[in-house]
Amino acid sequence: MIRRLATAIAAIACLCSAASAGAATLQPIGNFEAPIYVTSDPGNPERLLVVERGGKIEEVRDGAVSTFADLSSLVGTEGEGGLLSIAPAPDFNASGRLFVDYTGEESPDQKIHVAELRASGTTAPIGSLRNLLTIEHPEDKNHYGGQLQFGPEGMLFISTGDGGGANDEHHNAQNMETGLGKVLRIDPNPSGTLPYTVPAGNPFAGVPGDYEPIWSLGLRNPFRFSFDRATGGLFIGDVGQSQREEVDFAAAPGLGGGANYGWNCMEGSLPGPGGALEDPQCPENAGKFVPPIFEYETHSEGRCAIIGGYVVRDPSLAGLYGRYLYGDLCTGQIRSFDPSKPAATDRPEGLTVGNLNSFGEDACGRLYAVSGNGAVSRLVGPEPADCSRFGSAPPPRALSFIGIKAHGRHVRRGQRALITAFVSPCAGRKGEPVKLFEGRRHLATRRLDRACTARFRPKIRHRTRFRAFIAEDSTYVAAISRKLRIAIDHRRQARRPGRGG
Q1: Which contiguous run of DSSP H or E holds residue 94?
Q2: Three-state DSSP class for 327?
Q3: Which residues contact 287 (CB under 8 A, 6 or more apart)?
Q4: Using an 8 Å Cβ cutoff, are 365 and 384 in contact?
């Protein structure tokens, strides 16, 4: 196996402009063949995994580079295709499971594949590959999305593009029957005949005709997204077309389940091409689209094709801590903003990476920048990050999700409605109490059954809103559901005939 010393590539530092004294700088990690993503072993931040677009996963440890996995024979790289990202399982050290997102080498169309690899020793043989999802893609060789990330609640999130072409000409982003133009959410463990499980709480699970892994929709090409390791919030960098680049956001614990970010009816905050194409979903969903938290004009100051990054949680990057780091493909300029007031705080960071393809984060919270020209670099502050205590602190409580649904949204005055609350993840939650609130008034408490559901039958006297709540425990933080609206059906009941008919 070819081994290369990462220190031999220090000359790549010339690709990156120096920052001002005391600010973040870029420290070379290694030089690779068309790298496109980087992450680490969840249990060892010093064991980096670098994804090469052509199909290899390279491991960097103790200054040496070796091939961890090689999927080159399966991967198609036409257009924007390739091995696009990976996500080691949270229990990677014990299970050896690692998930990959790639486009196949099928012709004429390159399907999107999400699959599982299992490590055997220091490598993950191609023979261990187990396919989870295959998503059909049009012949256009662009807009694949391609990010994999495990969410704070332990589920696998997947981003997909709208299928390519212009204006979402294939009408996928608003189409609930396809996985394209979406963020998907699955449990990667098999269920019945499926190689994965649709988690409880997926907003479109059980809806006839809908693609059940859909978590959120209305995206053009969400090439990179991430979770804030401190708050769990979801940040999506969605590549624009001719008007806007945008960052979409969903707060934990709901994480935007069911959110529609608008494409192709909207492009950022502007009307999109869907109206001119007379896509029926545009008038149907008008007023329901979730606007971006940040946007800029396409080709503004030479910028284009936003590369979504991470909220900085590396304490050694004091001037950046808590800010969302992002960039773009055209200028390679690294920028950041405060998520609480994005437009007012957006600024350049004095760092440039030629052909910026991606950012990455290791298990210690250190951030990386990836150049398609070959360089992978770590962002460092005046003092290096201290990862010596990694893993010594007790693990934080995991986020959980609680959903709520009614069996019928309209009832007659005085009748009872059947309301079901459901909690995910389910592990260890059986028997825990769930509270139902009407407005701010606590109505009832029920305990979760073995399927982690709780049922309520409140009497409906007027149009009202309900929410379900589950308290924190030793493993999970507290969670509260979205509001559920139930309206009164004012149609007059059929009159009973009097005596004598």
Answers
A1: helix 92-95
A2: strand
A3: none
A4: no
Tokens 């005055």, residue located: 413
Q: Is 120 helix (H, G, I), strand (E, B) or coil?
A: strand
Which residue has 């492009």 as its token pair? 267
Say if CB 36 and CB 372 are below 8 A apart.
yes
Q: What would the two tokens of residue 350 be? A: 């004095």
List, in sequence order, every residue forming a beta bridge with 100; answer none if it has no partner: 86, 115
Its pTM stands at 0.81
Mean pLDDT to the nearest integer, 367-380 = 98
- The CA distance from 39 to 55, in Å, is 15
3-state secondary structure 206-254: CCCCCCCCEEEECCCCCCEEEECCCCCCEEEEECCCCCEEEEEEECCCC
Q: How many whole angstroms separate alpha carbon 384 and alpha carbon 401?
A: 36
The angle subtended at Cα 154 by Cα 482 and Cα 126, nearest 5°, is 140
CA distance 145 to 85: 10
Q: What is the per-residue pLDDT across 407-428, written as a single tens digit (0 to 9) for each?
A: 766 778 888 989 999 998 888 8
Q: Which of 86, 65, 31 is nearest to 370 (CA)?
A: 31
The DSSP 8-state label assigned to residue 269 in this structure reads T
* Per-residue model confidence as pLDDT tens digits over 137-159: 999 999 999 999 999 889 999 99
- Residue 188: Cβ within 10 Å count: 22
CA terminus-to-terminus distance, the chain: 93
Is the alpha carbon torsion for 21, 27, 31, 32 positive or negative?
negative
Task: Write out pLDDT tens, residues 276-300.
Answer: 999 999 999 999 999 999 999 998 8
Segment 183-205, tens digit of pLDDT: 999 999 999 899 999 988 899 99
β pairing state of 356-361 and 347-352: unpaired
pLDDT of residue 396: 60
pLDDT at residue 497 is higher than 60:
no
The 3-state DSSP class for residue 183 equals strand
In one-letter notation, the amino acid at residue 227 is F
At 216, the pLDDT band (50, 70, 90 cuts) reads very high
Give the confidence band of 11 by pLDDT, cuts at 50, 70, 90.
very low
Angstrom CA distances, 94 to 42, 120, 353, 382, 427, stand at 11, 11, 36, 35, 18
- Residue 187 identity: D
Quote the pLDDT of residue 485. Answer: 84
